[in-house]
Design brief:
single chain; alpha/beta; Purple Acid Phosphatase, chain A, domain 2; six-stranded mixed sheet; five-stranded mixed sheet; 24% strand
């Protein structure tokens, strides 16, 4: 029998160090195996250099994807304390976790992103599978929580329908934090600044 992977999933920190500290404390209190950050880790204009330091100092493992407010130079700084899984995958406790980010103001996924998700899920041969995306999928409850007309991503939706991960973690729509949905058999969880404890 395999152990479950316990994660703290969050997103949309936007450079707020107080939030990073609170999340690190929450991760420690709940004895999580992994912290997953679904983008927009840096601030809009104020930056966020060193924002992952609370996790690093606590010895907590962090994986992340960049969000539309995270730029290439930001990601380089984040990689000092966390693992960037944009267009990559990692395995923890037998759970394969693939990521697709949307840095540099990118607001929609494209065919190249779809192909990257396909490639990475093709490498995860067994066990549970998780997809981490900053953007939210089209046709989910997160659409009605955001700004008027802020539709979800069609490419992400297609990827979830085709590759059937056990769990999709998304952020981006602040108002949708904590909302859950399903796409087929895939559990869809919208995360935000408070962070959500998930077991898979």
């Amino acid at each position: 029998m395999t152990n479950k992977l316990k994660i703290l999933a969050a997103g949309d920190l936007h450079g707020d160090f107080r939030i990073a500290n609170k999340l690190s404390v929450k991760a420690k209190k709940n004895r999580v195996d992994l912290v997953v950050l679904a983008g927009d880790i840096y601030g809009y204009n104020e930056g966020g250099e060193g924002i992952l330091e609370p996790f690093r100092k606590a010895g907590q493992k962090v994986v992340f994807v960049p969000g539309n407010c995270d730029f290439d130079e930001d990601v380089e700084g984040l990689e000092r304390a966390g693992k960037n899984i944009h267009n990559r995958y990692v395995t923890y406790n037998g759970v394969g976790i693939a990521g697709i980010g949307s840095g540099n103001w990118k607001l929609w996924l494209d065919k190249g992103d779809f192909d990257g998700i396909k490639k990475n899920f093709g490498k995860i041969k067994s066990g549970k599978r998780v997809l981490v995306s900053h953007l939210h999928a089209a046709g989910t409850k997160a659409e009605v929580m955001g700004f008027e007309g802020w539709t979800g991503d069609d490419v992400l939706r297609r990827a979830v329908e085709e590759f059937k991960p056990d769990l999709l973690i998304s952020a981006h729509i602040h108002e949708a934090e904590g909302i859950e949905d399903v796409i087929g058999a895939t559990r869809v969880v919208q995360v935000g600044r408070r962070g959500i404890i998930l077991e898979i």
